[in-house]
Design a protein that fits this description.
Elements: E1 4-6, E2 13-15, E3 19-25, E4 31-37, E5 40-48, H1 51-72, H2 76-88, E6 95-97
Parallel strand pairs: 1-6
Antiparallel strand pairs: 1-2, 3-4, 4-5
Length: 101
């Protein structure tokens, strides 16, 4: 099953293989951390105020991937449990929704 990630602004839905964090610095010394899909700036998945928060989101994506792998190898009853668990977390089967902040 392919993994898709819906961008933070809900405009993009990208097939995903890898994500990276890039620091974005501004002239007023503020910074934020962008999560990009496949190291492609045109596939901006979301931005976060701190590097720590961006890392947490990457961990959430990794956990989601693990659930998708488990889903593929389970019986129907367990698949239903995984599907409900993901929906309660705000995702759909196969699609990770980037959190706002």
């Amino acid at each position: 099953m392919d993994l898709y990630i819906r961008s933070q602004d809900k405009i993009g839905n990208y097939k995903s293989d890898a994500q990276v964090i890039r620091r974005i610095g501004y002239e007023d010394k503020k910074e934020e951390f962008a999560i990009l899909n496949n190291d492609n700036i045109s596939e901006l998945l979301g931005t976060y105020k701190t590097k720590e928060r961006a890392l947490e989101v990457l961990e959430d994506i990794d956990s989601f991937k693990e659930y998708m792998i488990m889903y593929e190898h389970q019986n129907e009853e367990y698949k239903d449990r995984i599907r409900l668990f993901l929906e309660n977390k705000g995702h759909k089967l196969g699609t990770f929704y980037m959190p706002k902040e």
